[in-house]
């Protein structure tokens, strides 16, 4: 049929409209140009006067060839195709285009002028335009006409008569020729007269139309009869509609407004005259109508009609007061009159219904009159329009409202074609606009007070229109990342989308930062998709920032009409727009059911003031106004909303009584699927209410929208699943800005990765360095191709806020590309790895100082085709199979075929589900992936202000929720983190307060989970099931957090062994012996000792062993050192010969390596290492994988905090189990780089203890070594775990810090007990003293005992506990003699904590006072858990 239609269209231009919808706008334009050129070629006199818009048109059409929608020629037709010369319609015989082809007519008007085109279509015969004879080809119409036909006939008759006579013919032959001639002449003259008469009548009719008006008595007669039938129905409809409007707009000071009486009377409106305008385009009919509604005019009525006439009357009852003291005031409106002069313009086209649009406009201000009697009623009421100025004021307000709508030259346009086709509903939405709001950048502060807390409001049309959508607000950010999806309902895609970026303020009106806009018409040019938009926002003509977003428009599915007239229904979809209508209720509160017996309610049903609330999935979508004092309320209110999946949508309507403390009068509940079936299949309109009496009238309209691949890409909370992760290797930075120059220092730089306002990870900071080298790798999950990352170099500060040193951006399109399959599935592939040295800029993108060198690559996540699409195809195949084999009882549904490979071509690993035996993806078979964590809610014992942070194998949070407040808070936020090694990874969630100083945070609770155990639970759940777990919070009695998880494996990725978590941890070294060392003394021996170095920094020194070349070291020669990468970081052992007077002599060096192939994890290994100058040393090494973090602490002590992994590979503890004791436990007091060990965990009692570590004797004071910083270490989450997982606090060393310290961090905490003194020197005349003891640390007095009178052996028994840092590890103990005027010094002692005290070995003894002989003092010094210093709980701390 298509080929036949195209071939018919080759000869009949009228048929080109059949496939006109298939043409693009440019093709339609070319067709219109070609058709206008044909007309011009056929009219040479008009062609000379025409001014063509396009002189170089590509259309090459001769006067003999009719143009059509296709430029196909005969040679292009398929062999054997149907050939036809069928001509259809008048346009097949004329070169004039069909007036319904708007583009062609518009082109003609633009080239020839309106008058010329009107004359062409004025109804004249078209034969003059279709002549193709020899005369018309060579003579203009000035030299020929139809006269020559008559002359030719006469000449032919004369010559033929002469010929007959010449040949001997008689009179009879001449008479026959004369008869033919007279018949022809009579017929010709008759036709001429008829044509002249028709032309004259036509011209007279046209002139009459242009100069005179027509009466419409026939239609007025029809209206007079029809009005009596239709007026009561119309009045009832008006009352119902008006009451619903009045309820919505009743002022608060009134009780109710009700339209109690309404009639328009018995006299029908009248059309006075109609005038038709003829000088219009050929496809336009324009008429001027004068009409009136004068019900009080009785001049045209008979006496009988006058007697039975009813005048219009409207009574509006306004009720004031409340309850029994209220009363109704009737307001009467009568004497209505109205008349106007309206111009109607009908625009036609060549498709059904052939009326494209109707435009209406008043040519002059309409006249209206009425009587308004607010008091006194009909008999005694006073018409207030008689008040001077009031009526004129009301009329002016009415005209001012209507003028921009439909007073000429403005007009009201009604799209008839769209309404008839069902494609456009002017009162509802016809499509959904998906707005993916990514971020805003460079926002400028237009507010002089406070910070910028931006959010975005979206409007359709202009910013003064109602809010169509609004994002969440982001606190204190000039570059906020929203990462939010909004659904905006649109009536038409030909509007303007406006967005207003605003600053949220507390206690005052929010201020506008700037406004941007986007013309939605341009979406049609790019398949309704605009991706990666960066739209500037303006404020008073100045650029105030930029918004990044994506737009995707989905129109509603419409029904279509085929050529044969059959209607194809709209394609069904589970996503679409729901219009929900609450019409009315009846018999509310008429009875109350009690035990199945209806009991009438006491009181008047008019005391019921009902309103309705609509909820969808528990979320309120609409609330009606209160319909006062009626148990049959009418609301007629509707709302529209986007439904992502109607199979899961649950609807409920609850009716409340406003007069009875919102008592529930009844409820209605249903799923959307069931409700749709009730309405459209069962035809149900009314439903009985539950939990009350009465029934409710509801309605709905479902507009399906096909959104294949889009809705499936969103989870229930609107968050997109990860598409992969970006691996960023930060090498170094150079020539950074020094922001600490004023204080005499240098910047302490680190790099953090920002995704909007979320910090997704950061490097360790390096102290006092403007050219830092980090050599650190971070993995950042990404969820959208527009989720660009910002690398911000920061200066670390102990107490104050960190300062920015500059930023640079990484666009994801630089490391990945988007690929779309033939089925429409999207996935992302990595491109070449990049290495850059980027210049740093500030937030205004102006060049700043310094460069950052980094490498980046993309790691794709497993991408699977949409299972919903596959299921749909299977269902269609099954239905087809059933229809073809309906008699075969063995036809069964085809089983689902799981893909062998994902979209990347990687083989998918499956396993059998342990419960339902289905094949599922074996997530445990993937070592690396992305853990997606949704935080649903938090319950606390009391109200707090907090955020929830997420950590996975990181010292820094990788996701943080927005700030929440309360004791039971719904959060529903989703964060993701990269899992490098599932066997070792741990997830930590931490609730903490947020203060201005981010380093001083109070922890309210925490929980820790093994990632592997989380994934194991994911494998146990059923497909499509979301399992929400409720986890108790540690350190928060009664606190709980509800979370759910998902794990997305990554493909095309193999973890570099250097990055393995197993290569980071702590190494415990026991020095056993040395053999065959080089002799350095004259006696052939040496006095050897060994110094150990890591990265050039000395970490431990053994005792000196005199006069031996084969020393055997004592059991105390043990130390533990944190190692960030055991592959790249060997330990250097330097053997020295001690010299009492000279410089120590180097006897040789040994490189101690302990890679995975040399030292097995958790297993004690004894190895012998060669010394380069001769001999060897033997060491026992134990490697324990732990998370290591550095912390700046203004200390020269090399310290680190660690975390024990909960999963021991192969569970092979063996001898290595000793490492889990107190010696290196990260759950105790931490690990001091100089070798001191932490506090034993109460959960590690089953593990043997490792010997303690002696303190170093020498600490290089020339270089500070970073200490540890706060890390979210792991907790015990399973009673079967043999590994302690108590955390270590790592907050700032600031004295004002409220978070708890562990004993080995920042110098730890000590408990000092001053017991007694003896043999003190006598300072008084009586040979005694009044002694007391004062203890000072770093110039600050931390304790002073009471003085004991007249004794040289005082007993104080006083103790105190204090925090220390490693730079102040000396106790200045001084004993003094108390006097009223001046105290005298007895003696003092400098007690070095580093040399005398260990965490597992307190000091208890007598120490001498200086000067010698002035006595001794008995002290006890013990390292304690600094939890005792504060009641504030730290992360992994104890209350």
Q: Return Rg in Å.
A: 47 Å
Give the helix tally: 17
Name the structural class. Answer: alpha+beta
- Give start-end ranges of low-pLDDT stretches: 1-22, 45-84, 124-137, 139-145, 592-605, 881-895, 1191-1307, 1426-1439
Number of strands: 65
Largest sheet: 8 strands, antiparallel
Mean pLDDT: 75
Strand content: 35-45%
Query: Percentage of helical residues?
Result: 10-25%
Shape: elongated
Terminal CA distance: 84 Å
Question: Can you walk me through this structure?
Answer:
- With 1439 residues, the protein is of the alpha+beta class.
- The protein is 16% helix and 35% strand.
- The strands form 17 sheets. Strands 1, 2, 3, 4, 5, 6, 7 and 8 form an eight-stranded antiparallel β-sheet that branches.
- The longest helix is centred in the first third of the chain and has 41 residues, at 171-211.
- It is elongated.
- Mean pLDDT is 75; it is low at 1-22, 45-84, 124-137, 139-145, 592-605, 881-895, 1191-1307 and 1426-1439.
Summary of the model, kept short:
By secondary structure, the protein is of the alpha+beta class. The chain contains 17 helices and 65 strands.
């Amino acid at each position: 049929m298509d080929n036949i239609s195209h071939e018919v269209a080759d000869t009949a231009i009228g048929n080109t409209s059949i496939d006109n919808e298939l043409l693009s706008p440019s093709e339609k334009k070319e067709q219109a140009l070609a058709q206008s050129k044909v007309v011009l070629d056929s009219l040479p006199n008009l062609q000379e006067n025409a001014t063509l818009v396009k002189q170089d048109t590509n259309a090459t059409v001769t006067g003999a060839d009719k143009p059509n929608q296709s430029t196909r020629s005969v040679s292009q037709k398929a062999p054997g195709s149907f050939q036809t010369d069928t001509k259809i319609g008048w346009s097949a015989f004329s070169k004039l285009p069909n007036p319904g082809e708007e583009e062609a007519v518009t082109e003609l008007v633009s080239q020839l002028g309106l008058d010329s085109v009107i004359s062409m279509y004025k109804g004249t015969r078209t034969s003059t335009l279709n002549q193709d004879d020899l005369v018309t080809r060579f003579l203009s119409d000035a030299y020929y006409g139809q006269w020559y036909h008559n002359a030719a006939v006469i000449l032919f008759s004369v010559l033929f008569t002469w010929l007959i006579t010449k040949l001997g013919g008689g009179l009879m032959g001449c008479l026959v020729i004369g008869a033919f001639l007279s018949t022809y002449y009579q017929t010709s003259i008759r036709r001429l007269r008829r044509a002249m008469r028709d032309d004259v009548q036509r011209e007279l009719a046209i002139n009459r139309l242009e100069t005179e008006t027509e009466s419409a008595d026939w239609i007025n007669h029809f209206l007079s009869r029809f009005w009596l039938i239709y007026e009561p129905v119309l009045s009832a409809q008006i009352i119902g509609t008006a009451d619903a409007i009045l309820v919505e707009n009743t002022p608060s000071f009134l009780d109710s407004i009700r339209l109690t009486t309404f009639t328009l009377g018995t006299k029908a409106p009248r059309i006075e005259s109609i005038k038709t305008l003829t000088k219009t385009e050929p496809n336009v009919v324009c008429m001027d109508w004068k009409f009136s509604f004068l019900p009080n005019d009785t001049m045209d009525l008979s006496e009988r009609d006058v007697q039975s006439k009813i005048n219009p009357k409207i009574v509006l009852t306004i009720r004031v007061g409340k309850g029994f003291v209220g009363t109704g005031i009737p307001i009467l409106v009568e004497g209505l009159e109205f008349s106007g002069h309206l111009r109607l313009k009908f625009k036609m086209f060549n498709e059904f219904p052939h009326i494209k649009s109707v435009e209406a406009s008043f040519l002059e201000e309409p006249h209206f009159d009425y009587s308004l009697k607010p008091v006194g009623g009909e008999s005694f009421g006073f018409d207030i329009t008689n008040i001077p100025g009031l009526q004129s004021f009301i009329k002016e307000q009415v005209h001012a409202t209507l003028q921009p709508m439909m007073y000429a030259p403005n007009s009201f346009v009604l799209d008839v074609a769209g309404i008839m086709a069902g494609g456009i509903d002017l009162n509802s939405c016809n499509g959904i606009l998906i707005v993916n709001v990514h971020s805003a950048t460079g926002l400028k502060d237009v507010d002089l007070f406070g910070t910028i807390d931006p959010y975005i409001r979206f409007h359709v049309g202009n910013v003064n229109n109602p809010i169509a959508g609004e994002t969440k607000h982001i606190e204190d950010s000039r570059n906020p990342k929203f990462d939010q999806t909004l659904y905006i309902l649109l009536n038409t895609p030909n509007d303007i989308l406006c967005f207003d970026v605003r600053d949220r303020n507390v206690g005052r009106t929010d201020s506008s930062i700037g406004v941007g806009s986007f013309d939605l018409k341009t979406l049609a040019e790019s398949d309704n998709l605009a991706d990666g938009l960066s739209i500037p926002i303006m404020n008073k003509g100045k650029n105030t920032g930029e918004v990044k977003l994506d737009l995707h428009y989905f129109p509603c599915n419409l029904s279509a009409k085929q050529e044969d007239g059959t209607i194809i229904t709209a394609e069904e979809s589970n996503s679409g727009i729901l219009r929900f209508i609450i019409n009315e209720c009846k018999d509310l509160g008429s009875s109350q059911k009690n035990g199945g017996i209806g009991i009438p309610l006491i009181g008047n049903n008019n005391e019921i003031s009902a309103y309705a609330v609509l909820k969808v999935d528990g979320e309120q979508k609409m609330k009606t106004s209160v319909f006062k004092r009626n148990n049959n309320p009418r609301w007629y209110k509707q709302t529209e909303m986007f439904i992502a999946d109607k199979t899961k949508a649950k609807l409920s309507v609850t009716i409340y009584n406003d007069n009875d403390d919102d008592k529930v009068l009844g409820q209605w509940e249903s799923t959307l699927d069931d409700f749709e079936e009730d309405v459209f299949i069962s035809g149900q309109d009314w439903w009985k209410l539950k939990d009350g009496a009465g029934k409710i009238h509801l309605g709905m309209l479902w507009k399906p929208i096909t959104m294949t691949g889009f809705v499936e890409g969103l989870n229930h909370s609107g968050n997109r699943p990860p598409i992969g992760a970006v691996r960023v290797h930060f090498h170094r930075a150079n020539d950074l800005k020094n922001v600490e120059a004023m204080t005499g220092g240098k910047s302490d730089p680190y790099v953090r990765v920002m995704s909007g306002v979320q910090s997704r990870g950061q490097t360790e900071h390096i102290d006092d360095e403007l050219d830092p080298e980090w050599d650190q790798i971070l993995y950042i999950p990404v969820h959208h191709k527009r989720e660009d990352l910002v690398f911000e170099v920061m200066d670390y500060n102990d107490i104050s806020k960190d300062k920015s040193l500059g930023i640079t951006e990484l666009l994801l399109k630089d490391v990945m590309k988007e690929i779309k399959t033939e089925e429409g599935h999207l996935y992302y592939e990595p491109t070449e790895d990049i290495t850059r040295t980027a210049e740093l800029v500030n937030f205004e993108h102006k060049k700043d100082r310094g460069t950052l060198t980094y490498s980046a690559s993309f790691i794709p996540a497993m991408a699977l085709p949409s299972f919903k699409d596959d299921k749909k195809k299977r269902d269609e195949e099954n239905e087809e199979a059933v229809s073809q084999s309906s008699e075969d009882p063995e036809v069964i549904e085809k089983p689902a075929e799981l893909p062998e490979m994902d979209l990347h071509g990687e083989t998918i690993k499956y396993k059998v589900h342990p419960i339902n035996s289905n094949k599922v993806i074996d997530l445990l078979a993937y070592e690396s992936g992305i853990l997606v964590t949704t935080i649903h809610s938090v319950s606390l014992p009391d109200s707090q202000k907090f955020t929830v942070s997420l950590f996975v194998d990181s010292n820094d949070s990788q996701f943080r929720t927005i700030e929440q407040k309360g004791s039971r808070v719904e959060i529903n936020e989703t964060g993701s983190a990269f899992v490098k090694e599932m066997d070792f990874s741990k997830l930590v969630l931490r609730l903490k307060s947020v203060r201005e100083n981010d380093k001083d945070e109070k922890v309210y609770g925490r929980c820790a989970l093994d990632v592997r155990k989380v994934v194991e639970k994911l494998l146990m759940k059923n497909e499509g099931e979301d399992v929400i777990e409720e986890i108790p919070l540690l350190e928060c009695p009664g606190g709980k957090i509800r979370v759910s998880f998902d794990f997305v494996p990554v493909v095309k990725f193999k973890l570099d062994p250097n990055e393995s978590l197993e290569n980071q941890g702590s190494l415990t070294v026991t020095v056993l012996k040395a053999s065959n060392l080089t002799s350095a003394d004259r006696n052939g021996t040496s006095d050897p000792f060994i110094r150990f170095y890591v990265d050039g920094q000395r970490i431990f020194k053994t005792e000196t062993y005199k006069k031996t070349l084969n020393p055997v070291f004592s059991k105390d020669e043990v130390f533990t050192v944190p190692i960030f990468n055991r592959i790249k970081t060997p330990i250097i052992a330097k053997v020295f010969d001690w010299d009492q007077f000279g410089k120590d002599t180097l006897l040789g060096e040994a490189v101690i390596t302990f890679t995975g192939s040399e030292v097995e994890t958790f297993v004690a290994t004894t190895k012998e290492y060669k010394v380069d100058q001769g001999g060897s040393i033997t060491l026992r090494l134990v490697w324990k994988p732990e998370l290591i973090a550095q912390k700046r602490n203004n200390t020269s002590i090399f310290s680190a905090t660690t975390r024990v992994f909960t999963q021991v590979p192969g569970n092979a503890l063996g001898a290595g189990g000793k490492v889990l004791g107190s010696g290196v436990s990260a759950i105790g007091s931490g690990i001091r780089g100089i070798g001191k060990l932490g506090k034993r965990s109460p959960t590690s009692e089953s593990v043997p203890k490792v010997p303690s570590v002696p303190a170093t004797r020498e600490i290089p004071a020339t270089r500070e070594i970073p200490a540890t910083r706060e890390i979210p270490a792991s907790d015990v989450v399973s009673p079967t775990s043999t590994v302690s997982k108590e955390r270590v606090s790592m907050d700032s060393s600031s004295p004002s810090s409220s978070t708890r310290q562990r004993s080995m961090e920042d110098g730890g905490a000590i408990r000092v007990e001053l017991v007694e003194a003896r043999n003190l020197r006598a300072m008084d005349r009586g040979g005694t003293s009044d002694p007391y003891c004062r203890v000072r640390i770093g110039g600050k007095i931390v304790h002073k005992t009471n003085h004991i009178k007249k004794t040289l052996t005082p007993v104080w028994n006083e103790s105190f506990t204090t925090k220390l840092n490693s730079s102040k590890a000396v106790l200045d103990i001084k004993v003094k003699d108390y006097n009223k005027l001046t105290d005298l010094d007895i003696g003092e002692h400098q007690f070095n904590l580093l040399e005398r005290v260990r965490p597992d070995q307190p000091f208890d003894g007598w120490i001498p006072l200086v000067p010698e002989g002035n006595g001794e003092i008995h002290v006890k010094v013990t390292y304690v858990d600094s939890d005792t210093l504060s009641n504030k709980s730290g992360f992994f701390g104890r209350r």
